[in-house]
């Protein structure tokens, strides 16, 4: 149902996977964690759609799982590393035109404190 969002291309995953923290085994057992690739797909789905964490489809694990891993990875600086890695890869492959840029108005403070 969410095929456009749920598949991380292998070429992209090969760049992302080494940057993610390794999962620690649970000495006392318990359920296995949702696979990292599925959780990352859930996080990407949430970022693309803007939905609430709890509205993430169950094929990505629970929204709570995705949110918890997002927080873990954010604290560990994973997304900054992913961004830099993908940017470098894309620049080598496609030669980014650094003379052109686009900025979302939500990122720029209104000069007179607009609403």
TrEMBL record:
Record-linked InterPro entries: IS402-like_dom (IPR025161), Transposase_6_like (IPR052909)
Domain named Insertion element IS402-like: residues: 9-82
Pfam families attached to this UniProt entry: DUF4096
Protein name per its UniProtKB record: Insertion element IS402-like domain-containing protein
Species this protein is from: Leptospira santarosai
